[in-house]
Amino acid sequence: MSALVPDLHTVQAAAVRAARRACTKIQADRARLQSVAIETKALGDVASVIDREVETLLRTELRAALPHSGFLGEETGGALSDAPTWIVDPIDGSANYLRGYPHYAVSVALAHGGEPVLGVVGDPSRGELFTAVQGGGAWLYPLDAGHSGVPPVYLRAATRNDPFQCTVATVFPKPQAACMDAYLAELGRVMKGFGQVRRSGSMVLDLAYLAAGRVDAFWERGMGAWDAAAGIVLLREAGAHIEALDGLPLLESGHLMAAATPAIAEALRTALHS
Q1: pLDDT, tens digit, for every residue of 195-204?
Q2: Where does 200-263 have alpha helices with state H?
Q3: Eight-class DSSP state of 33
Q4: Residue 247 and residue 244: Cα distance in Å, rounded?
Q5: Which domain does 143 fall in, by range?
Q6: Cβ partners under 8 Å of residue 227, min gap 6
Q7: What is the pLDDT of residues 21-56, one digit of tens each?
Q8: What is the CATH number of the domain that holds 205?
Q9: pTM of the model
Q10: Which runs of E-coded beta strand occur in 93-213?
Q11: Is residue 198 within 8 Å of residue 215, measured between CB atoms?
């Protein structure tokens, strides 16, 4: 690791603190939801001033913890480079949050050399915090730091090998996305070839659930780096397989990303490529 990132575990602790603060703000700001302006960024893609405030909070805390780092956020932009770069989605599942549907998350990742090496996912609705660093395993903690006496749970991907006993998660494309027809064909094949399909509206929580063994596979078309970065670290450390099916590096691909337990990775790949 570069001298710019002297100790990943120290940086991880700072990222966990920042994610916890962001989750606390998100839940407190639910009282403002009736009065905040909602911005439609694209058809089916919404955000509010709360998203931007949370991203500003994260930017301030994360860059203070790691001076000279870059920053790439869904709301305020930025660029990915070989230097240490924070990749943030302040509220993954903003549409859920704005409607009071309790499935959304804070996503924080650190990339180095263009590869994610640290991930933190905070779920304020369920009080869970998923985190992993490269080579350090993937773990589940209580989101509330006051529950520090609760032992962490070591995460491993599930081991089911019969597709009809497996659950596959996905995120739908935006309503008028160019990839919609191809995606609907994939959805049909997956629904015919696997036992269950789920759509939650938060990609990073789906990836965290795959790392935790709660689902067995996931795919999406049209992702951004902030959608996937934290989940990539969780999945790799939990023993799951993840790839961009267009052959590009994961953080550069917006085409088609698939993740699965090793036992059913080939079955998922076959369904998506048929």
Answers
A1: 999 999 999 9
A2: 203-211, 225-238
A3: T
A4: 6
A5: 8-154
A6: 89, 92, 107, 203, 204, 220
A7: 999 999 998 888 787 766 665 544 556 788 899 999
A8: 3.40.190.80
A9: 0.93
A10: 105-112, 115-123, 128-133, 138-142, 153-154, 167-170, 196-199
A11: yes
